[in-house]
Amino acid sequence: MSAVRHDAAAGPGPAEPGRAEPGADPGGDRLPVVLLHALPLDSSMWDGTARGLRALGHRVLTPDQRGFGAAAPPADRSPSLDLVADDLARELDRQGIDSVALAGCSMGGYVAMAFLRRHPHRVRALALLAARGTADTAETAGQRRRFADAVLDESARARIVAATTPSLLGATARARQPRLLERVSGLALAARPQSVAWAQRAIAARTDSTAVLRAADVPAVVVIGVEDELVSLDEACRTAAALPRGRLVALPGVGHLAPLEAPEATLEILADLLAHAQTAGTAAC
Is the pTM of this model over 0.85? Predict the structure, then answer.
């Protein structure tokens, strides 16, 4: 992750200077938070949540993952979320951060699970939004790989984005927040096709994380939009059940992108998780 948006306490970023939030507390003894974005968006999807968490005194990092936002495109290596997880570990080392609360939406959730597998001692709280703990079925993985091939066809890309982007939002958001759909569509069109294809292939290749989640004895929450058209409520229930201290939150009227569709509710959920993590020995309900 070569570009990270962060608060004033985090120091200068490796590619782009971080944006300081006015009045942000440098963090003190509060748990640092990492917010990982969805595909094909960038870290700006977390802007509202990051401001809210900083106002509560948390140090917040919102990395652009490989090839998205200000981050450099992936090198010619086999697509793998493990590479993205290790990018985050290096960034935490660079900033002198030992352990964090980790929150990821969709692709960000899959990166969070890869990070938990490879660096379990660095995760003190976990939030998975619109992400399943199991690997893709052969059918779903095949669909992702076909999408990756198709999005590289410049003549078809605009049509593909127009056809698929609405499913990232719930029916309520599509009807009531037309500007949000415009924003998400704009970010999807702005994303580098090669980066989208690489990320889709990396997600398709990911392994089942159920055993990793079962071993994660940290406060955890799984968030699912009731109107999510990509991850089902049953899948979210199974993910939450795998976490020893996990709980499920289902948001009515919300689709796949809770941080954008329901920013206040998302902030409240994460603030509650962080309060549990800050109190040693307190299990999630």
Answer: yes
